């Protein structure tokens, strides 16, 4: 079997890094993958980058593994318009979305090992009527359809220095206080603790939970949420058997000695979690969605339109995402896949 890689925005660096990852497949020791996307876009991008790319169009995911060593397998989802590097076109949004849908469908049917997504530009998809803030929420909706229940997705950023997840995800900062609840923190903490055990082999995960306000509220002088929302969540997590500490002041929980005291940090909003993650490990960073009935990883960067077709887009983060997805698939099935050291 192989991992399903959705092509992302065809005008972004998704095609560049997919080609780069395939070219480095041997030394990077990554599991086999196939791209779900437009073969013409990949051929054009390879020509622009001046690299020789053997590419094979496949009709079914099952064919990917056999071809991967010799050619980049592509399950075609064709764009409506030619993709121009750096110039996103909303007419191609439906192909971008369809590639994600197919990756999820094939993983849920057991035809692929997991979903790896190349970056999308959210605003381009919103212009085409996409109703979700990002992949994370779209994948949760697809999972909910499959499971017939609501699904809370957890956006875990992983690099060699840190694992960290925000409780609230893609929402405006002014809405964070209204949407942050004790229940959301507890559910997020439970999902992280469960999946650190199951997918990352951490037998007794230790979580560090941040506060919301400066200095975790300074005993209420700088905000009530730390004491009224976060502290009860930490207590509930402990009562549920999860090793959790907090609320911790967010500004002092990411230095090396602090990081050594926990396995994952739980933060209250997007930038509180993603700034330390992307600062400590941008090019080896992976965005993994937990809480889903399938594996999903992604590079931690975006579409970087100005780099598309330039040769300057590094495939490292995608390689890390493919490697982590391969390791998760191996942990799930008990078999060894490439990248599982
Ligand atoms: N997984 C995803 O789908 C995902 C993740 C983050 C951002 N985005 C989207 O991407 C778009 C652009 O976002 P942004 O500009 O904030 O972030 P970005 O990650 O695209 O770019 C940030 C900076 O990092 C550089 N960079 C990014 N990837 C690189 C790579 N592989 N090699 C070398 N340099 C790289 C860029 O040139 C830029 O200077 C937005 O629409 C955002 O929503 C998508
Ligand atoms: N918040 C993520 C980041 O900045 O890396 C990014 O927007 C990707 O999110 P999705 O995987 O939900 O598209």
From TrEMBL:
Function: Catalyzes the NAD(P)-dependent oxidation of 4-(phosphooxy)-L-threonine (HTP) into 2-amino-3-oxo-4-(phosphooxy)butyric acid which spontaneously decarboxylates to form 3-amino-2-oxopropyl phosphate (AHAP).
Pathway membership: Cofactor biosynthesis; pyridoxine 5'-phosphate biosynthesis; pyridoxine 5'-phosphate from D-erythrose 4-phosphate: step 4/5
Primary location group: cytoplasm
Positions of a divalent metal cation binding: 170, 215, 270
Signal peptide start and end residues: none
Cofactor binding summary note: Binds 1 divalent metal cation per subunit. Can use ions such as Zn(2+), Mg(2+) or Co(2+).
Family: Belongs to the PdxA family.
Catalysis performed (reactions): 4-(phosphooxy)-L-threonine + NAD(+) = 3-amino-2-oxopropyl phosphate + CO2 + NADH
Miscellaneous comment as given in the Swiss-Prot or TrEMBL entry: The active site is located at the dimer interface.
Protein name: 4-hydroxythreonine-4-phosphate dehydrogenase
Assembly notes: Homodimer.
Keywords: Cobalt, Cytoplasm, Magnesium, Metal-binding, NAD, NADP, Oxidoreductase, Pyridoxine biosynthesis, Zinc
HAMAP family: PdxA (MF_00536)
Residues bound to substrate: 135-136, 278, 287, 296
Organism expressing this protein natively: Pseudohoeflea coraliihabitans
Pfam family, one: PdxA
Location in the cell: Cytoplasm
């Amino acid at each position: 079997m192989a991992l399903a890689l959705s092509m992302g925005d065809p005008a972004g660096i998704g095609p560049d890094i997919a080609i780069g990852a395939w070219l480095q497949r041997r030394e990077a020791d990554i599991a086999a993958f196939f791209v779900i996307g437009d073969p013409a876009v990949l051929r054009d991008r390879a020509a622009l980058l001046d690299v020789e790319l053997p590419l094979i169009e496949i009709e079914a995911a099952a064919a990917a593994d056999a071809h991967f060593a010799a050619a980049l397998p592509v399950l075609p989802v064709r764009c409506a318009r030619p993709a121009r590097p750096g110039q996103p076109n909303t007419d191609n949004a439906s192909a971008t979305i369809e590639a994600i849908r197919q990756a999820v469908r094939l993983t849920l049917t057991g035809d692929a090992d997991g979903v790896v997504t190349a970056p999308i530009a959210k605003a381009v998809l919103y212009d085409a009527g996409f109703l979700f803030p990002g992949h994370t929420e779209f994948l949760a909706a697809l999972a909910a359809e499959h499971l017939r229940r609501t699904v809370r997705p957890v956006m875990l950023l992983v690099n060699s220095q840190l694992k960290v997840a925000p409780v609230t995800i893609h929402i405006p900062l002014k809405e964070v206080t209204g949407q942050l609840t004790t229940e959301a923190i507890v559910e997020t903490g439970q999902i992280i603790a469960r999946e650190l055990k199951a997918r990352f082999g951490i037998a007794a995960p230790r979580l560090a939970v941040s506060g919301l306000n400066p200095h975790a509220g300074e005993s209420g002088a700088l905000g009530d949420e730390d004491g009224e929302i976060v502290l009860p969540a930490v207590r509930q997590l402990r009562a549920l058997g999860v090793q959790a500490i907090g609320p911790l002041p967010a500004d002092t929980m990411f230095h090396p000695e602090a990081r050594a005291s926990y396995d994952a940090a739980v933060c209250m909003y997007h930038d509180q979690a993603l700034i330390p993650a992307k600062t400590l490990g941008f090019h080896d960073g992976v965005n993994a969605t937990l809480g889903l009935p399938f594996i999903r990883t992604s590079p931690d960067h975006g579409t970087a339109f100005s780099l598309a077709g330039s040769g300057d887009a590094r495939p490292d983060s995608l390689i890390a995402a493919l490697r982590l997805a391969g390791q998760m698939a191996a942990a799930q099935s008990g078999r060894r896949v490439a990248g599982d050291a």
